[in-house]
Structures are given as structure tokens and as C-alpha cells.
Amino acid sequence: MTVNVETSSLASQPLPLVLDEPMPDTQVTFNEADSALTNAAQFHEFIQCHKGQLKTYVPEYLELDKIIFQNQDVIQVDVLAHVPVNNITLPIPQLVIGNPDTSKTTLIITAAIHGVERIGTQALLAWLQSLVQRYRWDGLWRSQFEEEVAIVILPMVNPVGMYLNTRANGNGVDINRHAPIEAEDPVPFLLGGQRISKRLPWYRGKKGASIQMEFQVLQQVIERFTQPDKPVLALDIHSGFGFRDQLWIPYAFRRQPISDVPVYMALKILWERNYPNHNYKFEPQSTAYLSHGDVWDYFHRQCQQQNKLLLPLTLEMGSWNWVKKRPIQILSFSGLFHPTVPHRHARVLRQHLGLMDFLLAATRNFDQWKPQGDQWYAMEQVALSMWYQD
To answer: What is the pLDDT of residue 61?
Structure first.
């Protein structure tokens, strides 16, 4: 059987992205250099001023502020945009450890693109807390951030969605169905992205309308921290689909293999050799479903056109298993995405620490495991036979 890799004409044609003004029903602003909330102290001041309201609606801000305030010598903080909701304007923070401008590799981790999936933010903050604590006492661990690797973290891409407990942003748009890229084959009704109404889930936004601010923030980060000849791994954390934790590689818009499929297969093998008892299902997202507008499909192809190496991964937590064990959660919308039993919640927070540690090490040591020469061809054949037989 022959499977063509990157055979679509899309590979050779630039993907359109027009960044116009924000949609009029949500006035959002990028921060200028002299605006407020651009460092840890100002971020802390904002949190303290709105502590009661944030504790009720987005308590993750308080945990994030605690980590940042105690580790200002380790974590560089910038606020990339402000998004208003009700009587408050929420910041979209970016955290950096190391120096992405000079490091040999970079790891980007994002969470809460879908606001209701707040367990992703919580798991990311649990790992961040572990990371900075180890930074304090492990000199070898700390030294990797001098030249080898940098970490860029966006713990809450869609804070208004978190505040409102919705999947979409404040304009009713699903950010991960919003990118200007269309699926090549039919997608599941609604789930694959729709333009019918923002009252229905998975709304992509009106065709031709302005790009949503949360997408622009992600675009800004990708453009800022990807460079030619510098590998960047990206992990995007989600919940709400499946009975098992899944690690998805692109694509969601097509069933054809991604051009970097040998690298992903090498990463999968490396992961399984180091963690043979893991419980993740590692495969292309297209094996689960296709969708329009996937942001990581778009960013990968955009970087590819610019000769940049971006390797996105999606962690999809198997939240249906949480509902299976406690069916009453189905009565709550957030219960479909979040473990409500305390011991199960604690287990989820700790069970992904190893994965994120591994991805940091794999990013730092990319040259040690990336396939080359005959190994590239071998990894490609293994991937095609395992993932693309149908």
C-alpha cells in the first residue's frame, strides 16, 4: 500500500491570515510596552484587587499568582492581551522560563483554549509548581535553562471562557475551530466546526469576519518563538473526549500523514521505551475525527512554509471515564470536562507530571533522538503501517 505524505496542493500554497480589528462585540487590546500588568508585581496587584471575584469565577488565577509571586527570579511574566467580561478585564498571561531567544530548543505548553476545560490549566500549574521547586535544589536541572531549552507557558488562553464556564470565548467562538483552514473530507456534524450559530457548540465564527483575539495571541506566540533550524515542541492540553488519555499528533483537517510523521513516530517509541506502563493512546487526531479550523494544523503548516520546525501535540484527557465512574457528573456541564471527586482530581493533577517532564527532556535532547538517514525512512514506514492503513 502506498500512502502519499503531504500530497495536497495546500502544502505549496500559503494559508491566509488577516488580522483585522477585534470583533465589535468584544473590544480587546494587546498590551503596549508601557501598559499595566506586564510584569509579575503588576499581575499580583491585579489579582489582589479582584481576589474575591476571581476566587469565585477563575480561582486558577490565584494559584498562578501564588506560583509567580514566589518565583519571580525564575519566571518571566508578560500579559499579552486583556479580554473584558462583565465588570472585569481579564489578562491572558504568558510565562517564560529560560531564554527562548538564545536557547537551542523551546517547549510551548498551552491550556484552556476551551474555557470549561479548566482541568488542563490546573494540571499545567501542578507541573509548573513541581518544576520551579526542582529548579531550586537541582543544579543540573536548573542548568538546562541557561542555553539548552526554554519553556513558554500560556496557562489560560481563553480566560473569559473559564469565567463563563463555556467552551467558547466571549463572542461565542470556539477558538480551536476558528483557524482559516478547511477540512479536506466531510467532518462530523457540529463537532467538526459549524458556522450556523454561536448558540450551538463548535461555532467557527462568521466566514470572513475578523480573527478572534485569543487566536491572535496564539499566533503572536508562535511567530515570536519559532525560528528556522530551531525545533519547537508544543503541547496543548484539553479534556472532554474519550475514555482514555490520548496524545494526538496533527492533522485534524486531513487523513493524509503529516510530513513530520517520522519524527512523531520516533517520539512515540522514545516515550514508550522510557514509560512502558503508560496509559496514553498516541496517534493522529484524524483517527478520532476530522475538523475544520484546528489551530495547530494551521500553525504547523504556516511554520512549514517558513522553514520552521513546530511539532504540536494535543493531550486530550479521557474525561468520559470520570463520568463513567460518577454518572451524576453528566447533570453538570462542567462535569463532562472536569473530575469532581477530590481524590480523582488529585490523581489527574499528578498523573501527567511525567509526560510533561518527558516532553521537556525530549525537547532539550531533540538532536539525540530525531530520525536521520535510513532511520527516517524506517520511522516513516512504521508510522504509515500503524496509523494510515485504512
So the answer is: 97
Q: Across the chain, how many H-helices and E-strands are there?
A: 14, 9
Q: Phi and psi of 69, rounded to 5°?
A: -65, -35
Residue environment code for 301-336, b if the CB has 16+ CB neighbours within 10 A, otherwise e: bbbbeeebbbbbbbbbbbbbebbeeeeebeeeeebb
Span 191-215, pLDDT tens digits: 999 999 999 999 999 999 999 999 9
Element (H, E) at 303: helix 295-305
User: Can you read off the three cell numbers belonging to residue 273?
Assistant: 521505551
Question: What nine digits make up the cell of 195?
Answer: 458556522
Residue 242 has what pLDDT? 87
| DSSP string across 218-283 | HHHHHHHH-BBTB-EEEEEEEESS-SS-EEEES-SS-SSPPTTHHHHHHHHHHHHHH-TT---EEE
Residue with the bigger pLDDT between 241 and 164: it is 164
DSSP 331-355: GSTGGGTS--SHHHHHHHHHHTHHH
> What domains appear along the chain, each with residue ranges and CATH number?
18-387 (3.40.630.10)
Run of H or E including 284: strand 281-284
Q: DSSP assignment, residue 175? A: G
> CA-based Rg of the chain, rounded to a whole angstrom?
20
How big is the CA angle at 77 (ends 20 and 29), to the nearest 5 degrees?
Answer: 25
* Distance in angstroms (rounded) separating the CA atoms of residues 21 and 10: 27
Separation between Cα atoms, residue 196 and residue 341, nearest integer Å? 36
